[in-house]
Backbone:
């Protein structure tokens, strides 16, 4: 992505005024009209791209889509227009249904030819928006407010459709570089609510399993079979180093990592932290294909920063790369073989 392809490059004074007219118009409509009526307006303005009854917002949209940089930059305006409605709808449970309803509008952009240049331009730019990271994040957010599917249907769905079960992915999946403070706060609230709800369900379920008390059996809140859940809970709540738990070890690593003198040193400590539990259980992990690949991958990651003091950006970025290495082969080729082998303890011997 070039330096010109940025939210800032789209924000000249004249463009900002045109955007403001759109945002304020949508805010006014949301405050004065029913949710159905607002969805209808959004569809007419951005999906149909014709026959809009109010001249000022239509003229502002017309000017924006005429700009030479619109094909590259209009996604930011349309994204914010969407969140101008989504953010307040999020705060009202009665309007939660409208969030997936708004996203679904983009599935029905007319494809028939039209003689009107502006209509064609609006539809083309809206179609292009559906291929951006901004829309992908918006669709994932909408999925959180859709009805829960059956277990069989869930198993066949991509992670993006199952996101409500993985709140630790919310920040990276629901936010983009142009997300405003309201979006960040809402995503933080969603993550906290999901984590708290899951923690309560898991604690109650495990307590019932341990004591056998309760009026009726509680459902297993995880995707793990009963035997694997019991093994996981015993493993992660038990002791791994003398009297230390996994949480204790993680906190020790977090504390110590703040004292390292370079990013290279941080990566070496991270390698040790990751591999030590594996080698304790399976000594072959000391120098097999998996461990050698992991060492090489981490040592080569962000090498330009190796001599610098680690920053939050460096740590977050290298952790994202690490998760990609462990879980998927790549975004275009999401192969989970390495992750599956690792959790099964079946990595090939080196």
Residues:
């Amino acid at each position: 992505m070039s330096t010109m392809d940025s939210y800032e490059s789209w924000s000249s004074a004249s463009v900002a005024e045109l955007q403001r007219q759109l945002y304020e118009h949508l805010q006014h409509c949301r405050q004065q009209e029913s949710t159905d009526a607002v969805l209808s307006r959004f569809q007419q303005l951005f999906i149909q791209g014709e026959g809009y009854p109010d001249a000022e917002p239509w003229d502002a949209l017309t000017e924006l889509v005429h700009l030479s940089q619109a094909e590259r930059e209009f996604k930011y305006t349309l994204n914010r227009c969407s969140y101008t409605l989504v953010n307040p709808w999020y705060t009202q449970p009665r309007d939660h249904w409208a969030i997936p309803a708004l996203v679904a509008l983009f599935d029905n952009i007319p494809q028939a030819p039209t003689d009107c240049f502006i209509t064609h331009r609006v539809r083309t730019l809206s179609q292009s928006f559906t291929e951006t990271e901004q829309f992908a994040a918006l669709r994932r957010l909408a999925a959180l407010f859709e009805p829960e599917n059956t277990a069989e249907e869930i198993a066949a769905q991509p992670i993006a459709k199952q996101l409500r079960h993985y709140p630790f992915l919310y920040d990276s999946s629901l936010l983009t570089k142009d997300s405003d403070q309201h979006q960040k706060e809402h995503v933080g609230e969603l993550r906290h609510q999901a984590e708290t709800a899951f923690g309560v369900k898991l604690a109650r379920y495990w307590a019932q399993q341990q004591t056998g008390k309760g009026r009726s059996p509680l459902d297993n809140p995880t995707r793990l079979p009963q035997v694997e859940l019991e093994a996981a809970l015993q493993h992660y709540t038990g002791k791994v180093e003398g009297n230390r738990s996994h949480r204790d070890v993680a906190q020790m690593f977090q504390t110590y990592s703040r004292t390292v003198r370079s990013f290279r040193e941080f990566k070496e400590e991270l390698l040790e932290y990751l591999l030590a539990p594996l080698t304790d259980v399976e000594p072959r992990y000391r120098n097999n294909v998996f461990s050698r690949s992991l060492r090489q991958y981490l040592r080569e990651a962000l090498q330009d920063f190796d001599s610098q003091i680690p920053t939050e950006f460096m740590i977050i970025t290298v952790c994202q790369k690490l998760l990609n290495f462990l879980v998927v082969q790549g975004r275009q080729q999401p192969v989970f073989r390495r992750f599956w082998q690792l959790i099964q303890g079946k990595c090939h011997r080196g």
